[in-house]
Amino acid sequence: MNKDNKNVLTVKDKNRPADENKNAARPGPAISIEASDRDKTAIDIPIKAKKLRRQRRKTALNSIALANILLMGAVFAGGFVYVTLLPHETRADDENRMLATFPKFTPKNYISGEFTGGIADYFDDTVHDRAHIKQFIADNISPLKGRKYGDGEDGAELYGNGFVPKSTAAVTTAAKTTKTADSAVTTTETAAVPETTAPPEEVPEQGELTNNILIVNKRGITLYGGAWGTEKEYASFVNQYKEALGSKNVYSMVLPTSSSFYLPENYANLAYSEKADFDSIEESLSGVIPVDAYNILNAHKDEPIYSRTDHHWQPLGAYYAAEEFALMAGVPFADISEYEKVTLPGYVGTLYMYTQSATLLNNPEDFVYYKPKTPVTVTQYNTRFENPVAANLLLDPSSMPNSGYYMVFGSDERIVHVNTECKNGRNLVIFKDSYGNALLPMLTSSFENIYLCDIRYFDLNAIDFIDSVEATDVLFAMCSFSAVGGNRSCIRNNLTK
Amino acid sequence: MVFSRLFFIYIFLPLCLLCYAAARGIKQKNTVLIIFSLLFYAWGEPVYIFLMLVTAAVNYTAGLIIGKYQGKKGDTAATVTAVVYDLLMLGVFKYSGFITENINALFSCSIPVPHLKLPIGISFYTFQTISYIIDCHWEKVKPQKSFKNYMLFLTLFPQLVAGPIVRYSTIEKEINERSVELRDISCGLNRIALGLAKKVLIADSLSTIADSFLGNIGGSTMLGAWYGVIAYSMQVYFDFSGYSDIAIGLGRVFGFHFDENFDHPFICKDITEFWQRWHISLSTFFRDYVLYIPIFGKRRKYGGLFLVWLCTGIWHGASWNFILWGLYYGIFVFIEMKIGKKNMKKIPVVIRHIYSKLVIFIGFGIFYFEDIGKLGTFFRTAFGFGSNGFIAVQDKISLINNMYLLILAVICTFPLISTIKKVSDKRFMSKAVISSAAAVAAVMILVVTSIMLVDSTTRPFLYYRF
Fold first, then answer.
1. Domain total for chain A?
2. Is B316 one of the annotated active-site residues of the chain?
3. Which domain holds residue A472?
């Protein structure tokens, strides 16, 4: 028995008789002493009684302390069992990512601290039933921070500070990558998240709203912060393609976000006008055909064309934008009735991942996508247009995380070639961000060959690539955040690779 | 390793407590504590642990020499050598990059800037060991003859990486002889739960507000700038005092009684009082070891004062804003000294409170912005010269979205727990009731905090970087 335990026990042992006295003969001693020899013990009695009382109180306080220790000990023991012995989770569907794995030991890993850090990460990240714990937090703890701004359905929550004029540019870029299997095809599934990149120093004090999300009317809205001149850069980069490609058709379709259509009037000053920047882009284009997605989407904004819980649009929005593009390109376009409509209920997208908002979590939406009925041949390549692998146009949603949006596209980090039954001799190259993915199924009746390339994951000279696939048309299709944000430099860089 | 992680709370700590309880006698217990302390440090610093061990060896040896040659030349030589070594290590690892950058800027040269990783806790353990050496030299304490015991003093994991700066004299006796009563353990465990709650439930939530409004200061309104900086001030307080609570609580569980490091600094009425309540172990270190360094002759009272505040600033980081921050407080303490305690007390309490909070919040603005340009934007915005007006809808939304958190944070800056304890201690029944309630509350807080940790990205304690 160690010394401290001895101390503890000593205290307990000392207290035991006092307890017994307390229970067995509380009035006894006083009466018996009084009866036997009152005069002689007149001084002793109060002293003994005081001692007894003090002893009793000490015992009581020690009992409380012991109970306290046992309770805390139970929490520590329970926590130990929970964190170490219960099955560890391997993936977080709501965050669209694989969880940490136990690190492999190597001397290099150990010296860098990655090994020990990785062990702590593993236990912290893979807690059993973490999805339910997170839901419990979203439902019961996070709301305790405060109230929604406004009343009832209009109640608003803000993540970020809303108005952020600064020199950084928002980028819709890949953040977390998970591997998933689709029958014979192994593909990479990527979540696109708005992130900021290093600010371009030469553009001081210019505006950009990044990573600011307003949740209002059960809808998450990424707040657009304005291009502040970068839209002209975007236009000049696209113009360079046109100059290099000569007679080929080059189109620019910058896609608005939900910020343009669903921001209530009383929050209008939280975001800048995407339309104003689109107009500025159109003015700056030279030889490039502008495709106005804004107006057609605005006309259909009462339909579910944008996700409420995801920062992307829904495939229906892509359908309308693709229709507008097909019109400008003078190619056939299949009506929506020629697609098989598939509805995935219970979808909670990326905006929940960023905000952990109970409002989004508790108000899932339907994710609706459209399968072309006409057969297509899909081949996917790496970002150098090598290693062709046969693939499906749409991945199987059953094996995928909750972010059904990606199910439509598979991933960004690849080049996809779709060969269709449309034999019109028109070959299309699409340079896009994750928004542009949704256009692919909608154009399978419009072009003979479609090459889908992500501007961020492209390791070839863009002009050489366009020439090598004998493209007749080149479409730049990306959301406003990519066109005027840091991603725009990828468009230029792809010219010089 | 960070205290506010499930791995620490539910794996490292229970294993440490179990081994500690199973160890027999004080020597075995000390061995367990040293092993777990080294493991704790090596978890985050697998390489720099050797730097700490060398520092321990140098200072332990210096202590022995000081003891052997007390009052003689050998004493002074060992003291100077050890202190110079300690400051040199701190200088090399913490300030060499900053100094080189400034030399390059000042003399337009291009000396390669060293980018050394800052060893965790070097600012804290260096000051601990300096205090030990100087106390040995001043014969305030007897040099520790056992290297193992010296290691225990220096590496004790509760306070190793982020303070408080524990003096050797504080735990000298407890290294070899300490007893732990049930109430020590229960109070210690409750204090750990309280510290975790301060960090995870309050500080981390406030950091989101602070980063939103100060992180993008160019977009903030005047109200937003004040809102952000007040949230940041409270964040730093709850973060750092939470760490100190955990350290003190852990110490108590193991039978050590560390001094308090925070005493509700936001209830201060002037800046002098603020620093008597904020990071007390650092303030007292500078008071005892720097303030009266006789290098300013007759002006040593004020010279020492500004030296202390310069050191306070530099200690917090190798950046100009920290130096500015230290001197900023030096100026206000100097002004208060000039006014005098009696005259200060004549000023109405309300005005003193407003004055002190204003100075403190602006001080934390200086503390936040390492970029001097952004600091300028902060000042312009906070004093109504910004370009975004006084208030905007985003300020209102954030205030309403976080109103209960803010109210809770403000309430928790007052000495509620100590007041309740003081009152309840007068009567047995109230003491018993409050102790029982504290036990239940601590368990609930620990459970809720642990649940929150499942959902949090790891945010290290702010003072880890100092």
1. 2
2. yes
3. 229-493
